[in-house]
Amino acid sequence: MLENILKNERSLYLLQHKDNPVAWQPWSDATLKLAQEQDKPIMVSIGYSACHWCHVMEKESFEDTATAEVINKYFIPVKVDREEYPDVDKRYQFYLQSTGVNGGWPLNCFLLPDGTPFYGGTYYPKEPGHGLPAFKEILEKIGDLYRTDRAHVRQTAKNFLSFLDEFREVKFDFEHFESTPLSAFDNEFYRIMDMENGGFGAGARFPQIPSLLYLMKRFEKERVGKFLTKTADMLCSGGICDHIHGGFFRYTVDKEWRTPHFEKMLYDNALNTIFLIRMFDRTDNMLYLHTAGKAIDFILDEFNTEYGLISSMDADSLDAKGKLSEGFYHKIFNRDMVLLSDEDKKKMFEHIFPYEGVAAFAKADYESRIAVQPFVDKLKTGAAYKEKPAKDNKVILSQNALFCKALLEYSETAGDEYYFEQAKMLLGKLEHFLIDGTHLNRINYSGDIFNYATLEDYAFTADMYLKFFDITSEKGFLLKAKSILEQALDEFTYDGLLHLDRAGKVLETFDDSMPSAVGLIAELVLHNKEKLGLNLLSEMENFLADRAVKYPTAHSTVLGAFTE
After folding, report:
1. How much is the pTM?
2. What is the mean pLDDT of residues 314-334?
3. Strands 352-355 and 394-396
4. CA dihedral of residues 416, 417, 420, 425 (deg, nearest 10)
5. Bridge partners, residue 309, by sequence
6. What are the backbone angles phi and psi of residue 379, rounded to the nearest 5°?
7. What share of the chain is helix, strand, coil (3-state, %, to 5)?
8. Burial code of 297-315, b = ≥16 C-beta within 10 A, e = fewer?
C-alpha cells in the first residue's frame, strides 16, 4: 500500500500536500517504474505554492478522505511543482490544449504508466459545478475505463502521439518566412488586440509580455504604438499594479484591469518592468519608469535573501478570523481608510477610485501618482497589522537571471548606479550557489541545491551575461554567455531540434507567461553572430520558421529572433 511520501521533499508546494490522505509520490523515474510494475495509470497533479485554485482543490478534494480513497485505489498519484519541472508542466499543458481545454493550474492529467497522457483538465470541483462533473465521478470513470477497456485508453494515448507527429511536421522553411511580409504577422496580432482596454483577448488580462516585447519592434506602426501605449497605461494605473505595497499581481480577472488575482511572481515583476522601461525609452513617459522602479524596489525589499530572490508571494493571507482569504492583505480601501482624514480622502479620490478593496487610477499620468503618494504611504503604514501572505523560498536560476537583466536595464535607463550594484550582488549569489561554469543548477532551497536544469535556465542565464557584456564590455561576460549557449546547443539538441529537457522528450517553442526558452536561444544566437561565432542548425531554423508562420501570435519570441 502506497503512502504519501512528500514529507521528504523540499518544495513548499509539495510540503503543503504532505499530510493529504492521497498517497502522493514525487515526480521521478522511480515513480514511473512503480506505475509500470503495478500496471496502474498515473494521476499527475501540477501546481505551485502561490496558486489560489491549487489551494481550493486541495481543501475540497485532496484533503477529503473519500476522494483520496478513490485516487489511491485506481492511480499512482504524483504531485509536481511546476517551478521545479517546467518541462514536465509544459509537456502536459500542451496535451491539454491539444484536446481543446484551456491550460492552467492546478493541472490534473491522467497518464499511461510510461507517462503518455490520455485524459486531463485543470480545476475540478468536489461537487458538480462550473459546468464540470464532480472530481470523484471523473476519477471513478477513468479508473474503471482503464481496468475494463484498456485498448480504448491506449488508443486514445496513441492518437495523441500521432497528433504530435503531425503537429511537428515542417511545411514552411526559413526562406518562406523571409518572403512573408511582417504586415501579415501584424494582422494576426490585430485580431487579438483590445484597442479600447489594452491587452489581448476578451477576458482576463494577463500582460503577455513576450508579445508586447515583439510588438515594440513594430512600434512605429500607428495602430501598434497606440495599443502598446494603452496597455502600458493600464499596467501602471489598473488594479494589476499594487499601488500600496508595490509590485505587480499576476493578472486581473476582468478585461478592464480592475480586479487582480493576488499572487505575486518574480518573473511577472521582472518582465513587466522590462516592458515599461523600454516603453519609457520609446515615449519619455515618466509614469512608466516610475512604476518600473517601484516594482523593482518591492522585489528587492520583499523577495531578497542571502541566496538570491525567492519565487513568489501567495495570493491568500490570514484574515481577521484567522482564515486564509484571497487578497485580504492587499485590500486596503475598506476599514483601513480610517487612517485618512475626510480632506485626505477627498484629495485622494480626485485621482484614484476603489474597487472591491483595491485601487486603480482614473488617469494614467505621473502627476496623479505623485499626488497620492502621501496618502498611499499612510495606508501602507496603517495596514502593517495584517499578516503578510506566505512566500515560497525557492531561488530559481532562470527567474533570477531575468530579474538581474531587469535591474541592468533599469540602471542603464534611469542612470542609477545603485541598481547596477544590486545586479552585481545578485549575480554574485547566483555564481556562488547555482552557476558552476557551464554547469547550471535550477533551484536553491536556502542553501540546499536542487540539481536539475532545463533549457530555460541556460537561455536566461546566457541572456543575463550578454546584458552585462553590453553594459561593461568586459569580455569575461561574453565568454561565459558563449560557453553556456554552446553547452545548451550541445546537450539539449535531438534530431537537430532544441528541446526543453536533456532527455529530449519535450519539444516546445510557444511563449507563455515567460518567453520561449527555445525562441530566446535562437534570438541570442542569431542577434549576436559576430560576437559569439555560433549558428543554429538549419533544421532548427526551419522548424522555428514553420512555427512562426503557422502560429505567429504564440511565437512572439521566435518572431523577435528572426527580426531586428
Report:
1. 0.96
2. 89
3. unpaired
4. -130
5. 304
6. -65, -40
7. 55, 15, 35
8. ebbbebbeeebbbbbbbbb
